[in-house]
Amino acid sequence: MANPELVRGGEYAARGDYHRTPDPSWDYYPTYLAKLRAVRAYLDALPAGTRVLDAGCGEGVLVDEYSGRLQIVGVDANYSSERVTTGSLMALPFADGSFARALCLDVLEHLAFADQPRALAELHRVIAPGGELLVSVPNLAHLQSRIQFLLRGRLIRTASEYKHPGDRPIVEYLHLARRAGLTLVRRRGIFPTIPVVTHLIRKHPQGLAPVHRALTALLPIPGWCFLNLLTFRRD
Questions:
Q1: Are 230 and 184 in contact (CB under 8 A)?
Q2: CA-CA 20 to 30 A from 207: which of 94, 102, 167, 177?
Q3: CB burial class (10 A; 0-12, 13-18, 19+) of residue 56?
Q4: How far apart are CA 38 and CA 36, in angstroms?
Q5: pLDDT digit string (tens) for 119-140?
Q6: Helices 170-179 and 116-126 meet at what angle, rounded to 10?
Q7: In 102-142, which residue ranges form alpha helices assigned H by DSSP?
């Protein structure tokens, strides 16, 4: 199903394949690397030949990396390549129950509130009964944001309203997933946002990456963390 012609749209037209060689000065850099480590551990544990969908895969970094061991395909609204098909999460171009596993990594927050339930319903549809969906999503109610709300009456968005129109606290994503027929089986937090320390890490993401890793290891409280990894099962 993949389109062999390389096509870039949206931010990929402007920035190129920026996930393949992420900028160490990117304030999300250590969180992005931590997410990839966790996702790779998840994929490494799957039996060879497992059918996997990476929904909203961007440049298809993981699709290319695991194509030799897993039956993995990607779909993205703004990208197509040999292994990535252009398509919408609102109407995935796959039959019901096509995949044993699906990934949806840092995608849902880019959708409008009204589109998120439809995207989750589509992911539920293409996963076989008993299969799993691994989601990564930023948490609007991370620790620093909660403190900001107590002191100043407003939350700290995880990105601009234009970039993350569907920004939500994690508990709201969990509610949407339950309504879509998905059962949470694991929740993991990455990067608890400790005030002052968080500011320093975002200013110096590469140099303070060890501090980022230490915080995640010591305080992996999902509600405090900027990013959550959520594993759901389709019953």
A1: yes
A2: 167
A3: buried
A4: 5
A5: 999 999 999 999 999 999 999 9
A6: 50
A7: 116-126
Q: How many CB atoms lie within 10 A of CB 3?
A: 15
Q: What is the pLDDT of residues 56-94, one digit of tens each?
A: 999 999 999 999 999 999 999 999 899 999 999 999 999
Amino acid letter, residue 97: G
CB 120 within 8 A of CB 182: yes
- Compute the distance between CA of residue 219 and CA of residue 67 in angstroms, rounded to an integer: 34
**Which distant-in-sequence residues (6+ apart) come within 8 Å of 183 by Cβ?**
232, 233, 234, 235
The rounded distance, in Å, linking the Cα atoms of 122 and 36 is 24
Gyration radius (Cα) of the chain, Å:
17
Measured CA to CA, the distance from residue 21 to residue 36 in angstroms comes to 13
pLDDT band at 17 (very low <50, low <70, confident <90, very high): confident
Which CA distances in Å does 48 have to 52, 68, 207? 11, 9, 37
Distance CA 228, CA 35 (A): 9
Pair of tokens at residue 120? 């989750």
Encoded tokens for 100: 């044993």
Contact 89, 119 (CB under 8 A): yes
CA distance 170 to 226: 10
Residue whose structure tokens are 């060879």: 48
CA–CA gap between residue 115 and residue 222 (Å, rounded): 25
